[in-house]
């Protein structure tokens, strides 16, 4: 069910500390940790602790939690001293989503082209 921890979900396991990650920030409702395959000098993922399959489901089912995630992307950028950065939610496999637990990518520390590929 949406919001409940999923046994087979990688990011639920990171939230539960069953799989290690380099955690950079934690709030009551969110966790931020470094991407294992960074695409920029700063590449941090911000996840809601509760399980929603992607940003679409999160926005629909838990808008206040979606706002917490967005606020945390700003806090991460601040801590990483990023003046410019990009916040990305890949939603659906056609957009590159590979982990089915909502997450924001925070990318920065290098020039970022627009539009993205
Ligand atoms: P997406 O393709 O938007 O679903 O993003 C999933 C991201 O999770 C990718 O950038 C992966 O590099 C990252 N990732 C996968 N496994 C781990 C892990 N164990 N710890 C941290 N990041 C991970
Ligand atoms: Zn999950």
| Helix count from the secondary structure assignment | 3
Tell me the structural class. alpha+beta
User: What summary fits the major beta sheet?
Assistant: 5 strands, antiparallel
Give the name of the CATH architecture: 2-Layer Sandwich
CATH class: Alpha Beta
Total count of strands: 5
Task: List all distinct small molecules, including ions and cofactors, that are bound in this structure.
Answer: adenosine monophosphate, zinc ion
Question: Can you tell me the residue ranges where pLDDT is under 50 for at least 5 consecutive residues?
Answer: none
CATH homologous superfamily placement: HIT-like
SSE sequence, one letter per element? HEEEHHEE
Q: Can you describe this structure?
A:
- The chain is globular.
- The chain contains 3 helices and 5 strands.
- The protein has one domain (10-108): HIT-like (HIT family, subunit A).
- The protein has helices at 10-15, 55-61, 63-79; strands spanning 23-26, 30-34, 42-48, 85-88, 104-108.
- A hairpin with a 3-residue loop joins strand 1 and strand 2.
- It is α+β, with helices and mostly antiparallel strands and 117 residues long.
- The N and C termini lie far apart (33 Å).
- Helix 2 packs across helix 3.
- Zinc ion binds next to helix 1.
